Amino acid sequence: MIKIIQETTDYLKNKGFDNPEIGIILGTGLGQLLDKITIIKEVSYNHIPNFPTATVEFHTGKLIYGTLVGKKVIVMQGRFHLYEGYSLTDVTFPVRIMHALGIQKLLVSNAAGAVNLNFKKGELMLIDDHINLQGGSPLAFKGVEKLGERFTDMSAPYNATMNASLEKIATTHGIHLHKGVYASVVGPQLETRAEYRYIKLIGADAVGMSTVPEIIVANHLKLPVSAISVLTDECDPDNLAPVDIPEIIAMAAKAEPNMITLFTELIKTI
């Protein structure tokens, strides 16, 4: 793994990915942030040695390097998921690469369903904690201790300082920002009514198919991280409508500007 990380890092450094400060992972249907970035270099995932390739049609699949509000950033335009057939090691490999390139903070976004029915589609949720329902760990491989502490502490996986700043920014800009627990499932199928009831019962406020593996690896690397869910649908088991993927993507695009404000204002301060 160390050799593979070095090979990929060297390739990107040679492409001009020079001392980035902040990494950003963009979730499903979320890409408008790129309009705010002065792009210096971009590389398709399928050109990067050892990188997986995004297979979801609304995940573009590029690693982008540039500046945002005066800071050097790396942006993953499109992420990887277990449901695409990748391993948890594959899914989290880009986090290790961004860390090896030098990022000091990581910001993550995703599209999620609101299980807490006080939360509405089109709103945002700051992730305060999570529940891993993906049935595995990205740290469960031989030699992981060479990359960081095997028994990684997860008592506070989301950085309290950055989260407090995001809440303050939301108040300042009049953005309705919930705070809650995110449950991560494998997918790609959506949940049944019974599964939504279960997810709510165990304490989750939102559910999605990503993010938790990347957060675990960020903590393994002692990389401060914050994450925001864009709530794209309401998961009411007593009034559950068939899934409408185009509507979910449209709702993500509608809610995204508020997420962009939160991220850009935070980046100014870190």
TrEMBL record:
It comes from the Bacteria. Its EC number is 2.4.2.1. GO terms for molecular function: purine-nucleoside phosphorylase activity. Pathway: Purine metabolism; purine nucleoside salvage. One of its GO terms (cellular component) is cytoplasm. It holds the Pfam family PNP_UDP_1. CDD domains: PNP-EcPNPII_like. InterPro entries: Nucleoside_phosphorylase_d (IPR000845), Nucleoside_phosphorylase_sf (IPR035994), Purine_phosphorylase (IPR011268). GO terms for biological process: nucleoside metabolic process. The purine nucleoside phosphorylases catalyze the phosphorolytic breakdown of the N-glycosidic bond in the beta-(deoxy)ribonucleoside molecules, with the formation of the corresponding free purine bases and pentose-1-phosphate. Belongs to the PNP/MTAP phosphorylase family. This is Purine nucleoside phosphorylase. The lineage of its organism: Bacteria, Pseudomonadati, Bacteroidota, Flavobacteriia, Flavobacteriales.
